[in-house]
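Lecture 7 notes: from sequence to structure.

We start with a single chain of 76 residues. Read the sequence below before looking at the structure.
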Amino acid sequence: MARRSAPSAQPSYLTHSHHDHKSLHDSNESAFSKFLRTEVFAPEKLPGNISIASAVGVFVGGIIAIRTWGDLMVPA
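Now the structure, written as tokens:
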């Protein structure tokens, strides 16, 4: 349920800026570089991307650790 407030109250979240980002970038950029700019290195998406990268790193590290030292975990 939405919280109701006075009509003159400001939003409690940060709104997106409404200026045009297209004018700052080259119109001839490739689709891959546009994807990197808008999805990977965008400041508003960086915390989520770091979270995904750290989760993948822990997963791969766990696989490497089990493959390297897995025989030590089995009782003799």
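The chain has a mean pLDDT of 83. Keep this in mind for problem set 3.
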